[in-house]
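Quick question, first post here. What does this chain look like in 3D?
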Amino acid sequence: MDRESGRKGKRERGDFSRMFEDAAKRKFDVLLFWSLDRFSREGIRKTVAYLQQLSNLGCRFKSYTEPLLGTENELVAQIVVGVLAYLAQQEAVRLVRAPLVAEFTKGEE
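> Answer (accepted):
Ran it through. Tokens below.
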């Protein structure tokens, strides 16, 4: 189970990398994740690439909290993945910027 932030890359998330290794070894055939932003916050391209890599390895995927996001309906899943990956990336940017903005504006009070 990967407990690292979805913002970190594949290299910094040992369990995340191991998941791909295990998928390649066919240790499982379905990946269930809580939500796409828990899976990855690295943006549309990387997130879609990760999901495509799983698919190429013969592994299906399913989001627990986002019922439309799964391999059952490929067209809907691709659209939803794109939108949710973008939103997750924007949330990550917001989380990084908020403390910086607060610190910057604190001096103006």
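The CA atoms of residues 26 and 57 lie 8 Å apart.
The helical segments are 14-24, 36-39, 44-56, 74-106.
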